Amino acid sequence: MAITFRRARATDLTKIVAIFNESVNLPINDEVELVTPESRRDWLAAFDDDHPLWVAVADDEVVAWCGLEPFYPHSAYRASDEISIYVSRAAQHQGIGRHFLNLVDQWAQTHVATKTIVAYIYQENEASQRLFTASGFEYWGILHNIAMLNDELHSLLIYGRTY
After folding, report:
1. Which pairs count as long-range contacts for 44-49, CB under 8 Å and 24+ apart, including other chains?
2. Which of 16, 29, 44, 118 is the most buried (most CB within 10 A)?
3. Is 26 a residue whose pLDDT tops 70?
């Protein structure tokens, strides 16, 4: 399967939402209900040259996405972004996540406005921890028992990279 990477378009929204919704029923996920394209329209429109959203495409179909969003709304954090990566189940284990992190690394090295990228990863998500570590992110800390999911507390690990 040949995979290409490009910036997301408005026409990709339905597939982006479908990929996100694949994770809603997983034991560790922030969302408890499926999202709709309509509920994510403004979210997609907020991505720009300073906070891009990329997609991976195989056989003319979006199979994954990666976005950089503002880390925190206060101006002191304007040089920091939060990263999210979602890969459809059918496209997992093909190096897409690693390619996205390489793409983000190249982008961040030339994008003077971005100095830090932060990833929040659930403690149980060892595959994402390995992916981010292998791609140059460092473990920065833990937010103990911060998320209530399925009536259980879960911890978020903080991984980051400074440019």
Report:
1. 44/8, 44/10, 44/13, 44/16, 45/10, 47/8
2. 16
3. no
Beta strands in 12-109 (DSSP E): 53-58, 61-70, 80-87
Q: What are 101-139's pLDDT values in tens digits? A: 999 999 999 998 999 999 999 999 999 999 999 999 999
pLDDT value at position 67?
A: 98
Q: Is 97 exposed, middle or buried (0-12, 13-18, 19+ CB in 10 A)?
A: buried
CB neighbours (10 Å) of residue 141? 10
Residue 141 in tokens: 């800390």
The DSSP bridge pattern shows strands 152-162 and 61-70 to be: unpaired
pLDDT, position 29: 67
What is the DSSP code string of 7-31? E--GGGHHHHHHHHHTTTTSSS-S-
Domains in the chain (CATH in brackets) are 3-162 (3.40.630.30)
Q: Give the bridge partners for 138, in sequence order.
A: 160
Question: What is the overall mean pLDDT for the chain?
Answer: 94
